[in-house]
Here is the input.
Amino acid sequence: MKPMGTPGEARERLDAIVSDFAAEVADLDSVLGPLSSGDFSLDTPARGWCISDQIVHLGLIDRRCLWSITDAERFLADRERLFSGVDVHVAERGRDHAELRAWWLRGASDLVAAAANIDPSAKCPWYGPSMSATSMITARLMETWAHGQDIVDALGVSRTPTRRLRHIAHIGVRARPFAYGANNMEMPPVEVRVDLAAPDGGVWTWGEEGGSERIAGDALGFCLAVTQRRHVDDCGLEITGAAAREWMSIAQAFAGPPGEGRARGQFTA
Here is the structure.
């Protein structure tokens, strides 16, 4: 992805990401629509999380993203509650499946509407470093896709990859230093080239050509690896070089501590 450039280009880029986030929400809702109350209780591959828990999480974080970009004081006060150990999930877990689905959709819709009126470069508070509004909405798209993957895995269904995977792959590439920091490891001072086959037949690339460290393969496989929804060995990636292999063994596109990930052979990409 290119740098933001002029304010007009930055606005255009944010609007495009917001549109893609709304589309990702709609795709996940199309999966949820036919489900019964019993289906919402199905366990997902995330240990201890059923489908309802996945939707509760998405709805809560969407709302906190909304507060961050529209009411920083409210967000910061809520952050203090979370850091003090308050479990904010409790109230939402009592909703029935139809009410929970509608509640999640309202939060995502409110976030989409708010993002249409914010400065793309504005710094918004978060649980770590502050982020631009553009980065925040991109992260929400990634999380919606990743938690959606847990849900379709629980249901035993598949999704058609879309060009929206580019946002997730970009976060995964940019988060390489974070992955090392989260694992208390020092990142090697070498660049890793990434070449991914896009769903539309194109190729997405990051890094300079010609280096000895390279990751190549399907964009879906890379996104499943960096969101830790598949073990990297099950993602069909061609990984060349010690630094590339080390990175992919710890890669994570999401904030927070290293995840539990998935076992080798648990799924195929």
In short: The domain at 165-250 is CATH 3.30.1050 (Nonspecific Lipid-transfer Protein; Chain A). The radius of gyration is 18 Å.
